User: What shape does this take?
Amino acid sequence: MSALNNWHTTQIDYVLAFPQAPVDREIYMHIPKGFKIDQGNTQDYVLKLHKIVYGQKQAGRQLLLEERKMSPEFVENQIYATELCLEVEEWLKLESYTREEMEPSRIEAAFDHFVTMYSQICDRDGSGTKTLKTHLPLHMHQYIAMWGPPTGWDSGPSESHHKTQVKLPAKNTQRREVNFTAQVSKRYHESVVIRKGENLNLMNHAVSGMNHNRKRRHGNVFLKGARFEVGCNLRGRPAMRWLSIDNAGKQAFPEPILRFLCNILLPITSFQEGQERCIKGCTELNSTVDNNDGDYIIFRAHPNYRSNSSQNCDVWYNWAMFHLPELFDEDDFFVYIPGRILSFVEVGELVGPSGYRGIGIQPSQPHCVVQLFEGPPTSDFRRSNTGGDYSQLVQWGKLERGLFLVPCNHIVGPAIVVPNIPPIEHNNGRTTNESNNNEREASVDPIGGFFVVLNRKEWAHQFTKLIMDD
Assistant: This one.
């Protein structure tokens, strides 16, 4: 159109998908350059916004809540329906159920509730819920009563066995009618023996490699990664050095972590005569916690992961769930606390029984410097319009002030933790979401806290509670 009519065009790139969403508060802005006022100076006036403009990140939420008429109740129902689907999916993946769970009347009532909620909340056009996918759950109680957990229903491997157990061995026979069946059976048996031998050989190599690898093992956990030492310099100040030449010049751990180790752990550590007074540590921990198949879970605490910069960048601090019964009553023995791991250290021999902030320090065991929650995360972080919890799979909590020194054998598994940090306005009027903004974290962390997503086992447990609820 502009070419045909010889019009002058100007291109504007919007980074937001909702540039015309309504505002949810009073917002004023300076009059832009080029705007003229008949009377007075532009410096004496401001503009009041009625629609979202470039740079405001609440645009999507406001458009969905107001323009699309998505009320808070609608959003809450969508959250409930989504979480219920996730709970059912994880429950169906369980390998075994209790006798009470497999009672047909209980399963029938639970799946009837699931289909009813899905039908009411997720209204579909066309056939609606009269589809095969929504009809099958109505008979789930019958199928489980006949065949047990759904994990044993898959017939795919049996249907494809002819490729691995018949066709491949048959190619290595003489293909004579008289002995074809016997040779196919023999070739298949030989392939199974060879495959088992190869797996055993690989396992022996893996065990041999781990035995000769220079890793600090302590039971079912061992430290690895980049190694470092922490101690006091000639001026008595905390200092750190990397033990590998490849890490020389890289960013060290923040000073509060080094000061914590020098003030808490260094005085209670027993050193031999002539031994250098320093604490050794690593940036990674391999553990078999919460894992039944023998694979290791890697936890990492690195101030400058995979970066050669001497600046504070590429920070990697994993979250984990900790079992700390000594901090709670006996009734809360199975309560787990999320914590952000800041460093891994090797605790040597101690001068005597020691502990810090109610947690015992174990000699000759790996420990981690952690920021722990004030207590177990809670589900009542937001008022629900339906009377129950706002979310069944997401909890909320705040960090305790100060640091903790926790033995690594208290780690029960990884944690998914998301900071509840909204963007803040800066002097230039722009907003930022950079994770290394210390000013922002210091200003909103006491207010926003953190969201904790429950692990998949807890998702299945939530649906189990629904089944057992009379």
